[in-house]
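Input structure tokens:
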């Protein structure tokens, strides 16, 4: 299967289209959703990738974030991939909600048990862009990336490692320092092995920021002060300190009383789309 259309719904004068394709990176079939604004009927448009969090599929963001209206306003496409390979059949992959299926952590696993299928980093940075740039009216020279929670971690790390490929980055409630939190330690010790801590740092926003020389990044990060995961898992204070120490000028906002849910995302999604549109139009 090269790729096939599974569903198409008109929205805000454009369309939300769901596709399925056989992924060579992940060795399984994968689904993703795309919002194509009406401008895409006349030529290639800029696009924002949105990486979702733990337990999500390709549907959560496109159905719950309220992003379509603002994307339509700016003539920008949205690309919403799944969060892990599906049905790989690896022992233990469905045992917990924060690891395995629905929790690919946007890395390329090196542990032999996971290495064949759990390659979300290569899928998001190479395979999926190659497919959408070839098959859809997407301008591959004008793309950016954002995400939520595990997907916020994915967006920030992918951006920091490939800054020339993306115009900008933003995140909601990102897992900012996974080497120092339970979710990250569980994922990295299994996918990357317990011993190779240097490999872990390659997928850690705070650690990547420390290595960033002379590159100024203008990222937007929002997190809710009533987010249940704020202290234990997200480590936004550490991110903020590192950003300051590195002389970066990120906008990091603590939003009073908001939690980790899509109600929070939908409240601030317009700000994020506007942030991206400003860079995508340059
Ligand atoms: N274990 C809880 C928490 C998982 C959770 O909060 N997931 C976030 C990302 S880390 C999410 O986006 N959930 C899906 C949704 O709210 O639609 C659950 O299964 O809902």
């Amino acid at each position: 299967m090269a790729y096939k259309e599974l569903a198409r719904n008109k929205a805000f004068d454009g369309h939300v289209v769901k596709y399925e394709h056989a992924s060579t990176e992940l060795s399984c079939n994968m689904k993703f959703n795309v919002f194509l604004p009406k401008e895409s009927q006349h030529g290639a448009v800029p696009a924002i990738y949105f990486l979702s969090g733990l337990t999500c599929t390709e549907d959560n963001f496109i159905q719950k974030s309220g992003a379509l209206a603002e994307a339509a306003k700016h003539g920008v496409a949205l690309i919403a991939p799944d969060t892990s390979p599906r049905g790989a059949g690896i022992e233990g992959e469905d045992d917990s909600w924060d690891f395995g299926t629905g929790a690919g952590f946007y890395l390329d696993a090196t542990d032999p048990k996971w290495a064949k299928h759990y390659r979300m980093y290569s899928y998001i940075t190479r395979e999926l862009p190659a497919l959408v740039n070839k098959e859809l009216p997407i301008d591959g020279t004008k793309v950016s990336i954002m995400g939520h929670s595990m997907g916020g971690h994915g967006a920030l790390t992918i951006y920091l490692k490939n800054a020339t490929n993306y115009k900008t980055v933003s995140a909601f409630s990102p897992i900012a320092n996974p080497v120092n939190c339970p979710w990250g330690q569980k994922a990295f010790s299994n996918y990357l092995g317990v011993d190779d801590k240097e490999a872990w740092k390659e997928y850690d926003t705070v650690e990547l920021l420390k290595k960033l020389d002379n590159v100024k990044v203008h990222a937007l990060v929002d997190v809710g002060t009533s987010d249940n995961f704020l202290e234990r898992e997200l480590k936004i204070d550490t991110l903020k300190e590192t950003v300051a120490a590195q002389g970066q000028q990120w906008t990091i906002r603590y939003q009073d009383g908001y939690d980790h849910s899509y109600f929070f995302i939908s409240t601030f999604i317009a700000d994020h789309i506007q942030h991206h549109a400003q860079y995508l139009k340059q």
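Strands lie at 4-11, 14-23, 28-36, 45-51, 77-81, 138-148, 169-172, 220-224, 251-255. The first strand starts at residue 4 and ends at 11.
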